[in-house]
């Protein structure tokens, strides 16, 4: 092949080189703006974040850390990673930060590998009550490597029972206690967790993946001063790129750095780290704080409207960006509800609820989150309208066509990106 042909390939656009992928990307972007996304773990990243990700930073190998790389040519990469670290520390008032974890699961893995040995006991929230797979599920490495003891929620109010946590900690003497969750809609008291951890000599890790944006905005209690380690994703309420982070007390820095690289990862994704830096900058703005306040307000209004429509809300409400609907008295499973809502362009996920009689692939509940619709600009009146549409179609399947049309009309009011 001639050099000129090779150069032509390097500089050709995606639409020229690969119309198939180009077309599918466009279809997915259209899907994201035509439907209504109520998946609590998803959001629309800032356009500036997407811009940073689609750059030639992806070409650079940078194993190691700023000023301590295994490759040359890292002078700008170092500046980018340092900016990301400094912004993250400032955002959460933290002593130490690592911005390299490729995902939330890898952030958790890096902390476990740094401070636990196989066979050690960890005390974590059960999956049924809101915990994440990486908090000791038997199908995840965490459940296979460690001796897992779970706390749950009280049958009375479906909230964490801190007396139970303390009893289990005293009985099993875990090496680490983990708080934070994927589907727990209430405030988690990090102070009590840290006191229990201190009492039994355990490390305390808080996985704030879901609440990170709310915490940055100061409207959900920060675990930073109480936890030894705080892990997170950057793509949920924080609206950054898909990725993970670790924040910790300063004296853990060496162990965590070593555990992330070379412990569990190779070269950092520098285009993603640049995008994380952009998100951390945006998270300090007044607009971001106001956005997070609206996210929580919209979740409360959504839950309240469904309650007025006769649905049971787990724990009777929410303190954050998400809540769970118990469908047991409706004759529908979570899977049924997910499918019905999907057919009208409303995306939710089926979710186990506390003491769920159904297995995880069926479930008795759905999880509803408001980060994505709030990013699009949904105000109280639109949230109420949407909640009533959800109620209508779940109660009466013959209304599918009517609701689909209404959802479309609502979506058109709120375009996502100004990308043609
Ligand atoms: C609490 C919690 N931790 C960790 C993760 C894992 O994040 P990732 O999907 O980036 O690995 C999630 C993802 O949903 C989560 O909810």
Architecture overview:
By secondary structure, this protein is an alpha/beta fold. The protein has two domains: 53-282, 3-Layer(aba) Sandwich (Aspartate Aminotransferase, domain 2); 289-412, Aspartate Aminotransferase, domain 1. The chain is 45% helix and 13% strand. It is built from 17 helices and 15 strands. The chain has a seven-stranded mixed sheet with strand order 4-10-9-8-7-5-6, sandwiched between helices. A four-stranded antiparallel sheet has the order 11-12-15-14. β2 and β3 form a beta hairpin. The protein is globular. It starts with a helix and ends in an 8-residue tail after the last helix. The mean pLDDT is 96. The structure holds pyridoxal-5'-phosphate (PLP).
List key phrases describing it.
420 residues; alpha/beta; Aspartate Aminotransferase, domain 1; four-stranded antiparallel beta sheet; globular; binds pyridoxal-5'-phosphate
Average of per-residue pLDDT values: 96
Strand neighbour order, sheet with most strands: 4-10-9-8-7-5-6
Number of helices: 17
The CATH class of the largest domain turns out to be: Alpha Beta
Structural class given helices, strands, pairing?
alpha/beta
How many separate domains? Answer: 2
* First-to-last CA distance: 35 Å
Shape: globular
Q: Report the β-strand fraction as a percent range.
A: 5-15%
Radius of gyration: 22 Å
- Overall number of strands: 15
Which regions are unreliable across 5 or more consecutive residues at pLDDT < 50? Answer: none
Largest sheet: 7 strands, mixed
Q: Ligands in the structure?
A: pyridoxal-5'-phosphate
Task: Work out the helicity level.
Answer: 40-55%
CATH architecture annotation of the largest domain = 3-Layer(aba) Sandwich
């Amino acid at each position: 092949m001639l050099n000129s042909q090779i150069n032509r390939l390097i500089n050709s656009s995606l639409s020229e080189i690969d119309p198939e992928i180009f077309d599918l990307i466009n279809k997915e972007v259209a899907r994201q703006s035509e439907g209504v996304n109520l998946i609590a773990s998803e959001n629309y990243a800032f356009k500036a974040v997407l811009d940073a990700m689609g750059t030639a930073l992806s070409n650079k190998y940078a194993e190691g850390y700023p000023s301590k790389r295994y490759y040359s040519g890292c002078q700008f990469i170092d500046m980018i990673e340092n900016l990301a670290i400094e912004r993250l520390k400032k955002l959460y008032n933290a002593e130490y930060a690592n911005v390299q974890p490729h995902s939330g699961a890898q952030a958790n893995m890096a902390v476990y590998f740094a401070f636990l040995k196989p066979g050690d006991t960890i005390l974590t929230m059960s999956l049924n009550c809101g915990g994440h797979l990486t908090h000791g599920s038997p199908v995840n490495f965490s459940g296979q490597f460690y001796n897992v003891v779970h706390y749950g929620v009280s049958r009375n109010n479906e909230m964490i029972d801190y007396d139970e946590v303390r009893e289990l900690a005293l009985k099993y003497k875990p090496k680490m206690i983990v708080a934070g969750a994927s589907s727990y809609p209430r405030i988690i008291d990090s102070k009590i967790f840290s006191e229990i951890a201190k009492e039994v000599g355990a490390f305390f890790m808080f996985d704030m993946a879901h609440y990170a944006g709310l915490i940055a905005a100061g409207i959900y209690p920060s675990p930073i001063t109480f936890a030894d380690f705080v892990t997170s994703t950057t793509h949920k309420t924080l609206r950054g790129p898909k990725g993970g982070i670790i924040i910790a007390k300063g004296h853990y820095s060496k162990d965590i750095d070593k555990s992330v690289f070379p412990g569990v990862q190779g070269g950092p994704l520098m285009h993603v780290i640049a995008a994380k830096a952009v998100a951390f900058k945006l998270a300090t703005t007044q607009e971001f704080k106001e956005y997070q306040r609206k996210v929580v307000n919209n979740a409360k209004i959504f839950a309240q409207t469904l309650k007025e429509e006769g649905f049971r809300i787990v724990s009777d409400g929410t303190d954050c960006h998400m809540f769970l609907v118990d469908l047991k008295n409706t004759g529908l499973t979570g899977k049924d509800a997910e499918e019905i809502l999907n057919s009208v362009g409303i995306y939710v996920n089926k979710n186990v609820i506390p003491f769920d009689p159904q297995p995880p692939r069926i479930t008795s509940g759905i999880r509803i989150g408001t980060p994505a619709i709030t990013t699009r600009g949904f105000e109280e009146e639109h949230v109420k309208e949407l909640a009533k549409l959800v109620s209508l179609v779940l109660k009466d399947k013959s209304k599918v066509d009517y609701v689909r049309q209404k959802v479309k009309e609502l979506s058109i009011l709120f375009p996502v990106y100004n990308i043609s």
